[in-house]
Amino acid sequence: MVNSQELIQILTKINEKIAENKDYLTQLDSAIGDADHGINMSKGFKAVVDRISQMKDKDCGSILKTAGMTLVSTVGGASGPLYGTAFMRAGQVVGSKTELNFDDFISLLEAALEGIKLRGKAQRGEKTIIDSLEPAIEAIKKHKEEGEAAALKRVVEAAKEGVEYTKKIVARKGRASYLGERSLGHQDPGATSCYLMLKTVVDWITENKGL
Amino acid sequence: MKKLINNPEVVVEEMLEGMEAAFPQYVKKLEGCNVMVRADAPVKGKVSLVSGGGSGHEPSHAGFVGKGMLDAGVAGAVFTSPTPDQIFEAIKAVNGGAGVLLVIKNYTGDVMNFEMAGEMAQGEGIDVAQVIVNDDIAVENSTYTVGRRGIAGTVFVHKIAGAKAQAGGSLEEVKAAAEKTIKNVRSMGMALTPCIVPAAGKPTFTIGDEEMEIGMGIHGEPGTKRTKIQPANEIVEHIMSKILEDLPLTSGDEVAVMINGLGGTPLMELFIVNRKVNSILSQKKIRIYRTYVGEYMTSLEMAGASITLLKLDDELKELLAAPADTPAFKQV
Question: Do A175 and B108 touch (CB under 8 A)?
Answer without folding.
Answer: yes
